[in-house]
Write a structure and sequence with these properties.
It comes from marine sediment metagenome. This is Iron hydrogenase large subunit C-terminal domain-containing protein. This protein is α+β, with helices and mostly antiparallel strands. The protein has one domain. The protein is built from two helices and two strands. It has a two-stranded parallel sheet. Strand 1, helix 1 and strand 2 form a beta-alpha-beta unit. It is elongated, with a radius of gyration of 16 Å. It starts with 8 loop residues before the first strand and ends with a helix. The relative contact order is 0.16.
């Protein structure tokens, strides 16, 4: 099985890195999958989020979590 750490896969986040990676994409023939998260660090309201909590509540949970660190 393939691992996401293989050079065939890459994940980037943030508009600057996304733009740079897209420009460099043609020069990386080994890259088969490029996952672009336009929000820096990924989106709090992304497609994989399954919850009934409001966006404000989710944001507050993240703030509370990081304050404990």
């Amino acid at each position: 099985t393939k691992k996401l750490t293989d050079p065939e896969y890459d994940v980037v986040s943030g508009p600057k890195l996304a733009e740079k990676t897209i420009q460099e994409f043609p020069s990386q023939p080994e890259l088969k999958l490029l996952d672009i998260l336009y929000c820096e660090g990924g989106c709090i309201n992304g497609a994989g989020v399954i919850t009934k909590d409001s966006l404000d509540r989710r944001r507050q949970k993240i703030i509370t979590y990081w304050k404990r660190k």
